[in-house]
Amino acid sequence: MAGYFKDIWTGITTIIAGMAVTFHHIFAERAITIQYPREVKEMYPRARAKLVNRIEDCECCYKCQRICPVDIFTIKGIRADKGEDLGMLPTGKPKLMHILEFDIDFNKCLYCGLCVDVCETGSLHWESPQEASVYSRRELLKSFAVMSEEEKKRLLDKEAAKKAARAAKAAAKPGVKPSPKKPRTTEKGDEKDVAGKEAQ
Known about the structure:
The chain has 200 residues and is α+β, with helices and mostly antiparallel strands. The chain is 34% helix and 14% strand. It contains 5 helices and 5 strands. Strands 2-3-5 form a 3-stranded antiparallel beta sheet, covered by helices on one side. It has a two-stranded antiparallel ribbon with strand order 1-4. The chain is elongated and about 100 Å long. It starts with a helix and ends with a helix.
């Protein structure tokens, strides 16, 4: 009997507590509802809302591409020539790679933040945009490379010429060809013993 009245009392007190919160929101001086889209609530600084790459600080190390569990990165880079000055990275090291392509496909992104954690230079980071939503899936494919198509073509042609020169140089070197492996032959009487040894 005591449990019955205890349950009734618990029900009444929880309803009063819930209604107190409701009445507080109804009669509070500060409005809870915002008039979207004229008013937009500012997101928290640590919100994982938008992944951004500051391309001038990127060293094209491919760590983000390797650690990503869903493969959202498309990165292409070409090593700079010896003595070519591409500037300095935030880590104090010289930049050694031309970044031809750096695309992120947000259609597949899990917003796990592994790529941000592994980025040594801090070029990959989160931003909190006021409007993160888009109208088309194509708009979720973001490109961060700033190189012109003419410059890309020039660097690719230069890299292809280097590879061709290296291949020609390697072909010109006299090399010792490995002797071909002789097939294993057995006499007619030994076939059973060899088969037994191979089975073991």
